Amino acid sequence: MRTQIVAGNWKMNCNLDESQHLLNALNQKNFTTTDVEVIVAPPYTNLYAAHQSLKDSPIKLSSQNLNENEKGAYTGEISPAMLKSVGVEYVIIGHSERRVIYKETDHLLAKKATTAAKHNLKIMFCIGEVLEQRKEGRHFEIVKEQLEKGLFHLSATEMKNVVIAYEPVWAIGTGETASPEQAQEMHQYIRKVIADHYTIKIGEQTSILYGGSVKPNNAKEIFAKEDVDGGLIGGASLDADSFADIVMSF
Ligand code: PGA
Is 167 known to be catalytic? Predict the structure, then answer.
């Protein structure tokens, strides 16, 4: 049985007050009644306070990024040890906004994955094609390449702390979702690629989340697919009711 996960990526939203407000609202939701692992990824500046607020909560804490170096002269960056020191358990690596806007390459993401694994941070590794690549029928090839170049240098043991998030870039923040069938088709493929590189068992055990315009009204249908183990939620994670509805869609 794979872990079912719903993670909220808050992106660059919520100042400290807004963040505490949202966390208080989430703490009122009864996530203890579900087996779904619930994760939130607030901006860096809110992580410490979030950790305090979530002390008695089943909700886990993630950062949205990390720097690949241990420490040093990297103005404006955040190290893995800093994240650990404020209670972070997960890191998102390779979100398409990092890849596209901040030009993060597979090579850099591979280094980030190594650093995260070394510090025992669990990884949510994001992959996904842009619209043009899908139109050209290259989506499987692109996703495979992202896995091979960014992730597959990790050992089998390290892979146990990795969750994949398949996020077709054309579906992020656009209101357009992949159909449940498109999600299932890609998730099944990703699982096979992982199984071929590692073992069938690791393929079977790796949670693969879908991301891209997941909302309370479409989550159930997407999560019902065999190889979809949850979601990475952007916009809808900023509203406690919507996010809780998505969690409860399992
Ligand atoms: P969205 O974002 O749910 O707003 O489409 C998803 C993501 O970027 O992880």
Answer: yes
